Amino acid sequence: MSIADNIISLKKETAAINVALLAVSKTKPVADLMQAYDAGQRLFGENTVQEMVEKQEAMPKDIEWHLIGHLQTNKVKYIAPFVTLIQSVDSIKLLQEINKQALKNNRVLDCLLQIYIADEDTKFGLGFDEAIELLRSEEFAALKNVRIRGLMGIATNTSSEKQVKEEYYELKTFFDGIKLSYFRKEDWFNILSMGMSADYKLAIEQGSNMVRLGSTIFGSRVMKSKSLN
User: Fold this and answer.
1) Which of 20, 50, 106, 175 would bridge with 210, disulfide CB 3.0–4.6 Å?
2) Can you state the angle between helices 161-182 and 128-136, rounded to 10 degrees?
3) What is residue 186's DSSP assignment?
4) How many CA atoms lie within 13 A of 198 on its CB side?
5) End-to-end CA distance of the chain
């Protein structure tokens, strides 16, 4: 199936249950993204700032760009003028820098707190306790140019469906608790981003309303061959 066919099929599947489809386009050429765009896709997720900036400059301006990879504070300024959602906020320090750059651009930047749910050391994110501590802090209360729209999580890369389901269930439960405790009156705290190509159906079962799909849309990534030099 073509990229366009994949988009059309996935949009039917996700729109019917009110789940947003984010096309994860890292390492993919602009030509591939344009195929998805021409099939109606407008939400694109990138892992690196440099790649996002280059693609944003080359592509139509009605695209909503989501930063889903680990974000360093010194790179925030490059995406602050145009980014739609930063999904990978994992510290108050990063949130303060986002707030600073949003202010410079006369914007309020939407963010998700990335919550650490995987049984893996390589993943980033706030622990449940750390997220609560952040939301309760005076530092967070002082930030006027960021808006927390919800939570994001990445499950363990495992063949155990039971483990993945449990991790997503825990995150959904935490999301509901955070909504009730800190954002009860804010309609805009409404995004739970969980689920990737390998496990998005499990994530949707557990309450995800935004899935981040790369290979399901664009096909498997071609690994760059290592130089022998």
Assistant:
1) 20
2) 20
3) -
4) 11
5) 38
Dist. CA 114–CA 185, nearest whole Å: 22
Residues 132-170 pLDDT 10s:
999 999 999 999 999 999 999 999 999 999 999 999 999
Residue that the structure tokens 């409404």 belong to: 190
Burial class (CB within 10 angstroms; exposed 0-12, middle 13-18, buried 19+) of 72: exposed
Query: Which residue is it, tokens 């935004």?
Result: 210
Asked if pLDDT for residue 122 goes beyond 80, the answer is no
Two tokens, residue 45: 């997720």
Instruction: Give the integer Cα–Cα distance in Å for 195 and 167.
Output: 11
In eight-state DSSP terms, residue 130 is: H
Q: What's the CA gap between 141 and 134, in Å, rounded?
A: 9
Query: β-pairing, 146-153 with 109-115?
Result: parallel
**What one-letter code names the amino acid at 43?**
L
Do residues 171 and 115 touch, judged by C-beta distance below 8 A?
A: yes
CA separation for the pair 88, 109 (Å, rounded): 13
Q: Which residue has the tokens 């995004």?
A: 191
Measured between alpha carbons, how far is 196 from 215 in angstroms, rounded to an integer?
9
Cα-based angle 101, 88, 156 (whole degrees, multiple of 5): 170
Average pLDDT rounded to a whole number, residues 62-74: 97
Residue 12 corresponds to which amino acid?
K
- The answer to whether the beta carbons of residues 166 and 172 sit under 8 Å apart is no
CA–CA gap between residue 32 and residue 28 (Å, rounded): 6
